Amino acid sequence: MSKNFLCHDFKSPRTDISRRLPGTMKIVPILFYGVLAMSAYFGIRDITDLKSADAERLASVAKKTEIEAAKTKLDLERIQIETEQFRGEGLAKWVEGTRSLQPATVAIARSVPPEVSINELFFERSADLPAQVSLTLRMTNGGPSDLAKIEDTLRRLRYRSHSPQQQRQGELVEYHSMLVWQDQ
Amino acid sequence: MNGKKIACIILLMFIAILAYAGQVLHKNALAKRAAATQAESDTQSARGALTLLDTKVGVLRSESEDVRRFLVAWTPYVDKVQLQSDVETTISASMRNAGVVTLSNKFEVRDTRTDLVLPKIIRASLTIEDDYAKTLNWIGELERKLPLSRVMSCKISGGENGRQVRTEIVIEVPLPNLRAVPVPVVKI
Q1: More confident residue, B58 or A27
Q2: Which of B1, B52, B63, B136 is deepest in the core (most CB within 10 A)?
Q3: Which residues of A touch B181 (CB under 8 A)?
Q4: CA A111 to CA A123: how far, in whole Å?
Q5: What angle (nearest 5°) sits at the alpha carbon of residue A128, between those of residues A131 and A135?
Q6: A162, burial (CB in 10 Å: exposed 0-12, middle 13-18, buried 19+)
Q7: Chain A partners of B115 at a C-beta cutoff of 8 Å?
Q8: What local confidence, expressed as pLDDT, does residue B183 receive?
Q9: What are the residues whose beta carbons fall under 8 Å from the beta carbon of B81, sequence distance 6 or more?
Q10: What is the mean pLDDT of residues B95-122?
Q11: Are the C-beta atoms of B125 and B170 separated by less than 8 Å?
Q12: Which chain B residue lies closest to A94 (C-alpha atoms)?
């Protein structure tokens, strides 16, 4: 009773004033709800994906920035090492030829007996190969045994004698040799 | 056109708008995903480059360790000799302290333009005539005081009397520049 009353209250029975739509048009509201549902599903999915992709991108960018900073730091370290190496090598090249000659001079003088007189002792370092030192020795009353002693002394000081030559003119002996420092 | 048709058209338009908006959103999401993938790829490349550089620096570090330790050990000696006057003063003071008789001394500066670490070399040519032991002690002391010095030539011969020797010695002492930087190699 009350239902009928309500029905009559809101919608009174009336005849159609316009023609019905064709049956195929029923698909429109179905399509509408379908598209609405699909839009909601894909929309939520796309928005979630978009947000996560954005977060991943930002994380990747932050990580890349961190890596770039580490790379810059390593690059600076590389430059620093290369610079120190350059300076060290330049200095080492020089120091290689600074080996003290005084011990060799003293050792030569001590290795000859008192009756042998050293007239001249001349060391000359090669400008191109500073590790090589040319030795010229002029002595009186000396002999091959004295020269052997000198060579032995120099060997003990880790100098290797290259192409030694000796000339004798009466009592005067002239000895010439190229001394090369041996590391081992 | 009746109201039903208009309602249908409005619904169809709404459907089209929804579909279009959904497509736009999807494209946007795809673009963001592509950007994220690209960023991840860039990060991977950067990580690879970092690993490579780290290896290179590690090798360089270990290979140059001896040279760098050598540089650290020699830096105090280099710091002592920075000016021509430092060399001249050290040599003159050593001769004075040893009390050797100096016949002549000459100091020259040699510029080595190609060498950035050792741009200047002081060449001292000295002639001394004194007691043999005193002279050799002085040479030893000088080589000890100036570890960077290089005796280029040393000629010891008889002096005026039997006890004395005449020594002509040429010493080179560099004035190192430990602020030198290597010239960058231009890759063509």
Answers
A1: B58
A2: B136
A3: 83, 86
A4: 17
A5: 50
A6: exposed
A7: 90
A8: 82
A9: B87, B90, B146, B148, B173, B174, B175, B176
A10: 90
A11: yes
A12: B148
Instruction: Please provide residue B99's backbone torsions phi and psi, each rounded to the nearest 5 degrees.
Output: 70, 30
Q: Partners of B108 in the beta sheet?
A: B123
Picking from B3-12, B37-46, B72-81, B114-123, which range would have the lowest pLDDT averaged per residue? B3-12
User: Residue A71: its chain B contacts at CB < 8 A?
Assistant: 46, 49-50, 53
Hunting for tokens 């977060």 — which residue is that?
A55
Tell if the CB–CB gap between B42 and A60 is shorter than 8 Å: yes
Q: Do B29 and A46 touch (CB under 8 A)?
A: yes
Strands B150-158 and B120-131: unpaired
pLDDT given for residue B91 in this prediction: 93
CA distance B77 to B87: 12
DSSP, residue by residue, A88-144: HHHHHHHHTT---SHHHHHHHHHHS-TTSEEEEEEEEE-SSSTTEEEEEEEEES--H
Set of chain A residues whose Cβ sits within 8 Å of the Cβ of B169? none
- Nearest 5 degrees, angle CA A18-CA A23-CA A24? 120
Taking contacts as CB-CB distances below 8 angstroms, the residues of chain B near A128 are: none
For tokens 């908006």, the residue is B21
A85 contact partners, CB below 8 Å, separation of at least 6: B60, B64, B67, B68
Q: Locate tokens 């042998």: which residue?
A: A116
Neighbours of B129 (CB within 10 A): 19
Chain centroid to Cα B91, Å, comes to: 29
The amino acid occupying position B186 is V
E strand or H helix at B63, and its extent? helix B3-63
Distance from B47 to chain A by nearest Cα, in Å?
6
Which residues between 19 and 58 in chain A have a beta carbon less than 8 angstroms from any beta carbon of chain B? 19-21, 25, 28-29, 31-32, 35-36, 38-39, 42-43, 46-47, 49-50, 53-54, 56-57
User: If you measure CA to CA, which chain B residue comes closest to A78?
Assistant: B57
Predicted complex ipTM: 0.83
B158 contacts A102? CB cut-off 8 A: no
- C-beta atoms of B78 and A91 within 8 A: yes
Strand order in the sheet with A117-125: A159-169, A172-181, A132-140, A117-125, B150-158, B164-175, B120-131, B102-111
